[in-house]
């Protein structure tokens, strides 16, 4: 697998389209941090790290609106790829849906959202947009 983050996002997108309640993805430290951000920002209902086997898995409970049966995540978009990395400084930080969505960045201080990186005045690699 050449791009594990794209695989992670694709598994989430496919589970949302199939209206699954829970999705399992292979674990890595970067995926765990992205999952924590999605939980903190209210895009997923819950998550659990399962340490079985050599790698472990992440079980993610997806969040749906009870009345309309619409998922909290409208779109997951991969920005930086292994073939074309996208870096940004804190002054040129992208705004997703004029601040309604989040951009997940990998910085020297760890994985964080665009707002947190702007507040700490650090740039980094833009991993994905979520809204």
Short description:
The chain is an alpha+beta fold and 131 residues long. It has helices at 4-17, 29-40, 114-120; strands at residues 22-26, 44-50, 57-62, 76-78, 87-88, 102-107, 110-113, 124-130.
| Averaged pLDDT | 95
Total strand segments: 8
The whole-angstrom Rg is: 15 Å
Oligomer: single chain
Question: What is the chain-wise order of helices and strands?
Answer: HEHEEEEEEHE
Percentage of residues assigned to helices: 25-40%
Strand content: 25-35%
Main sheet characteristics: 5 strands, antiparallel
Distance between the termini: 26 Å
Give the overall form.
globular
Please give the count of helices.
Answer: 3
User: Which consecutive residue ranges, at least 5 long each, have pLDDT under 50?
Assistant: none
Structural class: alpha+beta
Structural summary, described in words:
The chain is α+β, with helices and mostly antiparallel strands. The chain has three helices and eight strands, in the order H-E-H-E-E-E-E-E-E-H-E. The strands form two sheets. Strands 4, 5, 6, 7 and 8 form a five-stranded antiparallel β-sheet that branches. A hairpin with a 6-residue loop joins strand 2 (44-50) and strand 3. The mean pLDDT is 95.
Write the layout of secondary structure elements.
Elements: H1 4-17, E1 22-26, H2 29-40, E2 44-50, E3 57-62, E4 76-78, E5 87-88, E6 102-107, E7 110-113, H3 114-120, E8 124-130
Antiparallel strand pairs: 1-3, 2-3, 4-8, 5-8, 6-7, 6-8
């Amino acid at each position: 697998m050449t791009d594990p983050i794209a695989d992670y996002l694709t598994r989430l997108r496919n589970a949302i389209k199939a209206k699954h309640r829970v999705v399992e993805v292979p674990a890595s430290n970067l995926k765990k941090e992205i999952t924590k951000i999605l939980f903190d920002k209210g895009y997923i209902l819950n998550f659990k790290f399962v340490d079985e086997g050599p790698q472990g898995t992440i079980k993610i409970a997806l969040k749906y609106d009870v009345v309309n049966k619409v998922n909290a995540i409208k779109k997951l978009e991969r920005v930086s790829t292994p073939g074309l990395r996208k870096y940004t400084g804190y002054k040129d930080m992208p705004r997703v849906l004029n601040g309604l969505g989040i951009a997940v960045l990998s910085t020297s201080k760890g994985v964080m959202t665009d707002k947190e990186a702007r507040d700490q005045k650090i740039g980094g690699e833009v991993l994905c947009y979520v809204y």
